[in-house]
Amino acid sequence: MKIFEKIVPLQKEINELKSNNQTIGFVPTMGALHQGHLSLLTCATKACDCNIVSIFVNPTQFNDKRDLTHYPRTITRDLQLLNQHGCDIVFTPTEEEIYPEPDTRMFDFNGLDKVMEGKYRPNHFNGVAQIVSRLFDIIMPDKAYFGKKDYQQYIIIKHMMHKYLPQSDIEIISCPIVREADGLAMSSRNMHLSTEQRQAAPVIYNTLLEARQAKKKASVQEVKKQVIDKINSHPLFHVEYFDIVDGASLQNISQWNQSKNIVGCIAVFAGNIRLIDNIRFNE
Ligand code: AMP
């Protein structure tokens, strides 16, 4: 496994691979790696000759600077995990390397960034688009892998490619949510949960599963209320939003027959730790 901090030697390596007709799979991450990240690496390894994982905690996507400061950083363990899981190249740039000058680009996502995560984390997706487009520029992969855990992010990246990089051949691939044995979606933030919060956290996914069952006999509004009330009734958790949306437009639906691709997206606070998850309503 090769590790690069600088763009120039990384690109030299990439050019060599490309001149040997090697296909490149790319997995962007912010580190504090877990099986969710590693599942993306596995997908990349299966489909591409060479895989590259980036680890960069991107400051421009944090609207809350305290969240940025507290974001877990576990680089030694991350590198060990990547080495054990067949990673070929790791890119661990500094902030100066990625943003030698401030990135002032503003993206327009046709409102996809104004709902759910975007509503509560203003400019978050603009920062995501800045870093992803910058990394795509540097690495020029054949395929790039994103987790459905961040469902809205995946939809916005696809939109960004279509609107801002229409000539690009980079294929955007989404991979399923990886969960702990008890159903909690894996997240770098889970390590900050207290023992009590961690023990109780499966209530989030269990409630989403119940919601999918309830769809058979309850309206969209009733299911929404049921999910919010159930999680809020737990003393350790507070729902920030739970939206039932069309999986492409991300707009709220009001009837189950309004879309064939319905996704329920949730953000829950456990103390000041923010957890997100989602579930497809059409199996
Ligand atoms: P992050 O390091 O949180 O920016 O995540 C990097 C990538 O890993 C993103 O595409 C995430 O959607 C994906 N990811 C994070 N957690 C999971 C998970 N539990 N299952 C699948 N993918 C995940």
Would you mind describing this structure in some detail?
The chain has 283 residues and is α/β, with parallel strands linked by helices. The chain is 39% helix and 19% strand. It contains 11 helices and 9 strands. It has helices at residues 7-19, 35-47, 65-70, 75-84, 95-98, 117-120, 124-139, 151-164, 195-200, 203-214, 220-232, and strands spanning 2-4, 24-29, 50-55, 89-91, 143-147, 171-175, 237-246, 262-270, 273-280. Helix 2 (35-47) links the parallel strand 2 (24-29) and strand 3. The model has no long low-confidence stretch (mean pLDDT 97). The structure holds adenosine monophosphate (AMP). Adenosine monophosphate (AMP) is lined by residues 29-30, 36-37, 39-40, 146-147, 149-150, 175, 177-178, 185-188.
- Helix vs. strand class: alpha/beta
Backbone CA Rg: 19 Å
- E-strand count: 9
Q: Provide a count of the helices.
A: 11
The molecules bound to the chains, other than polymers, are:
adenosine monophosphate
Tell me the helix content.
Answer: 25-40%
Which strands sit side by side, in order, in the main sheet?
A: 1-4-3-2-5-6
**Uncertain residue segments:** none
Distance between the termini: 39 Å
